[in-house]
Amino acid sequence: MDFQIEFLKKLEDIYLGRIKNLEGNSGYINLIYIKSQYYQDIIKTIKETEQLLSYSLATTNKEQQEYIKHIYEKIYTFFNKYLNDTGTPFYSNVKVYNTNYVQLKDNKDVALFWKTQDLYYIKTEKVFESMTFDMNNVKYVFDTSLIERQIANEKITYYYIIQNKNIKKLNEQQGILCEVCINVVSNKDIIDGYNILNKKDCDNFLKEIKKIYSLYNKDDLYDAIKKFNKQSDIDYFIHKNAKEFLNEQLDIYLFEEIGKDVVTKFTEETINRYHDVRKLAIEIIELIARFENELKSIWEKPKMVKNSNYIITIDMLSVDIIDILISEQPRKQYDEWLNYEFIPKSWKWINLKDEQYKYLPLDTKNISGSLKYKILACFDDIDKHIDGILVKSDNFQALNTIKSKYNEKIDLIYIDPPFNTGSDFGYIDNFQDSTWSTIIDNRLMICKNMLSNYGSFYLHLDYRANYLGRLILNNVFGSDLLINHIVWQYFMGGKGKKEYAKKHDDILLYSKTGNYIFNSIKIKRYLNFIPALEDQSKEAQNGKDNIGYYSIVACPDVWDISSVFNMSAEYIKLASEYKLTQKPERLLERIIGVSSNSDSIVLDCFLGTGTTINVAHKMGRKWIGVEMGEHFYSVIIPRIKQTLYGKISGVSESLKKENNLKIGGFVKYYELETYEDVLASARYVEHNNLNDILIWDEKLSYVITYKDDKILIDFAKLGDRYTNFQDEHYKYSDIAETLSNLFGYDIIKINKNMLLLDTIGEIDMDNIIIDATYLNTFKKLIWWDTY
């Protein structure tokens, strides 16, 4: 093996150096283009470093070749353990680390240090965009126009179809001899042709293409597909500190290798060789880590808000606003109310003043921009009036963006994450437990800081992840702050044929400080009937000899609460493509009732169908919910509108009887720009100064200028570089939310062209001028620090 050639080929594969003339619109395609540019700088720097090695002192070419061969044998052997197709260095091919966990570190329990702990897991759905590039004298055109959209965590099989007519021989132009158009589809029945991932089809295709271009081979074809697929998983992981990690591993490797040579032959030449291996390796590590730090910084930067809107019930509007609404008669809003069956077909706009319609939820997306801002302008200290906030985003991005605004303000966090089934995420390299641990750990660290000093954290899991969850929570909060291991016992599904039927989940309760909210509750326990099915109806308990007799006892840590059945009133009928679980409202009622007060904020960043926030609203708590799937709009928002309207379901009836049911309210919802949104606008700039950024967000470079001790920010300059900021309807509330999250201050007042932000003061939205003392905070949005 020629180790120098193989190592450079590996780098070429990772940084997609063979790709030429790349075309496509997605953020990931743009990142591929940026990586291929960076690859040229990597090769240039490596060649320059080679000239500084001791081999140049050798007297003959043969001696030089032998010397460099030994150098690259060590270089290849070392980097091959950590470099992989994702481009992110980690324990990808290290035999000593065959389990999910790494070796002892800092004298702590080995189980706390899993392979991917120092990584960010970038959860994205498959993002396949049409893509064109040249490689090895062939032009590849990948057409994705026939792909069916992926929904939620749905698993889709993709097929690569080529038709004879899509193979074209070209007149030689810049070395390109042939063009191949490949249709990428999610249903192989929709188009005829060769499915080139099928061996027989691929062999037949190669026979056809070789008639046109005789040098074509299967390896090139599969390599092209591999390059195309990069757009969906190129940043599966991002290392938090690639330089420190690789340098540490290099020291370990060289120590082990030197130890072997001491036994055999340890001469001045050997010492020089190890010096040179280290010199070249450190330079390569610097190059790899520099790019990885750019990606990490883009991932960590606060994200901008887009598509910001409000839902407000009619009872919170002034008479003047209601009159304007009646005069404008927005058709979209009328159709929505009718669709939700909030109003009859005979309903007229003048009926809006009737008492029975005072809880109709008005969505500002359905009205004019001028009316939207007239409504918002009616509120002083508007953020204090907001009952709840919905954020459509990856939950790490959301938590990282709002953490300044809600630092130590959340009394209760409940999360019900995927249960580590193996099908919930696209785990790679069989690191299922490790990757799941990384996902949870990265989010828990931010959650802990957002909890108040009286805060509680509930993690809901099942048998597939409860042991991992406890280890992570012990690491984040401390084992001494475990308050309860709650067992939720439910009754649903069939009987186990070869095992005991699994009929419970585990809920781990931790406190942030040990001084936490805990409102004691008592439950009814029927005598002579164990377990007590407290949520079953009286009729369901007939025949159990216990009817009418019960005792009041303190709530134990085993909860008998029925699951949500498809016949229950609170059941949400989902489209067949959604694979979401729905927790019973009574379960969340107990958690929220015990661990929060009427002035508390409740957070759920794995929102699912939205049970947590709906129960929190009904109980009069403020709340924040985060979800990234498309069901954000089709399931979660309709459900909260029904809660605002007062639809009776779940715990509504019992809360109403106790006169504790909240109906109506004021809700804010918005999206955050995604990691891919930033990448789509990114550009690569070569810098000699290693502290300068390599990748920068082009769209935001137009926004800011300096004048004296002031910062001038003009978001209008974004134009079509940023979707929705160009739209007058959304523009100001998007900017207001962006600045509020960024600085961590509440919005006091907002109207069409003015924002009053707590602490900072009044801001003219058409001509934003901020004191230069806020520059470093604002720079987080635009220029990220890579070191």
Automatic annotation (TrEMBL):
Stored InterPro entries: DNA_methylase_N4/N6, DNA_methylase_N6_adenine_CS, RM_Methyltransferase, SAM-dependent_MTases_sf
PROSITE patterns membership: N6_MTASE
Example GO molecular function: DNA binding
Domain of life of the source: Bacteria
Any GO BP annotation: methylation
Gene3D superfamilies: Vaccinia Virus protein VP39
Alphabetical UniProt keywords: Methyltransferase, Transferase
Methyltransferase as UniProt keyword: yes
Similarity annotation: Belongs to the N(4)/N(6)-methyltransferase family.
Descriptive protein name: DNA methylase N-4/N-6 domain-containing protein
Organism, as annotated: Mucispirillum schaedleri ASF457
